[in-house]
Predict the 3D structure of the following.
Amino acid sequence: MSATKILSAALIVTAVCRSASAGQPAKIPGVGPAGEVELVQDGFQFLEGPAWDGKGRLYFTDVAGNTLYKLERAAAGSRAAPFLEKQGTLNGLMIDAAGTIFACAMEGRLTSIDPATKRVTVLAGECEGKRFNAPNDLVIDQAGGVYFTDPHFRAPTPLPQGKTAVYYRDGEGKVSRLIDDLAAPNGVILSPDEKTLYVIPSLQKEMMAYPVESPGKLGEGRVFCTLKQREGETGKGRGGDGLTIDTQGNLYIASQFGLEVFDKEGKALGIIEFPQQPSNATFGGADGKTLYVTARTGLYRVQMEATGHRFPGGKQ
């Protein structure tokens, strides 16, 4: 399929209150979408970590292909090209205000990549003298610190850390373990005001929120929302993967159903479906209204009514 071919099937949005017009997909008011889903490029192995640099470039990773890709001047007809290969199994990405790419390497490292020289620097590789399990996703705060998750996916067994957790690396390089009681913490992001840290576990249906008392210091967690479950699913249920956030504080959480959208109070607004199950998402485009989604073997985009939030410390 051509990289610019518009999918023939219209985007389906499953909203809490569906439109009464038969055959017309209901839009989430103030969120969108404002257009159809477009397949940007396919043929990958397993995509993750989309990150927008604020200058027209989108970076994303093919986890199974061990390659970091760059979509230059991400416009209709553009195709992504390999940017960095065989430099670790990269997963979640975020780009800071200076343009440096921060990346989770599943070999147990939090790294940074200079986009000009492609030089890779290890920012953190261990806690309490032991390597991390397999860092998965991250978010950069205004203080220059990095919150990152460390589940068990692709990690050695027994787990090097003995548990799955969420960590914080401050601007001076000190690493602290913040959370260690979640079932496979995966996606992570801050609220626009950076007063709340959201953590998305993969092996429980409850998504968590933690008050940020100061950079790297969290208060007691609470259940922010509960993801939709298929009939007959038992136990702790199925959780989410990566996520993104808009300027209104709405969260877009990748799940088995698509992108489940919740407002800042945790109210379910609807589900944006894609041809493949998404792993992660980010906003980009000149106006911040283009939603880019990595979904298994394909990279997709769709125009939205909402505008994506740009973190002062790290661009999305």
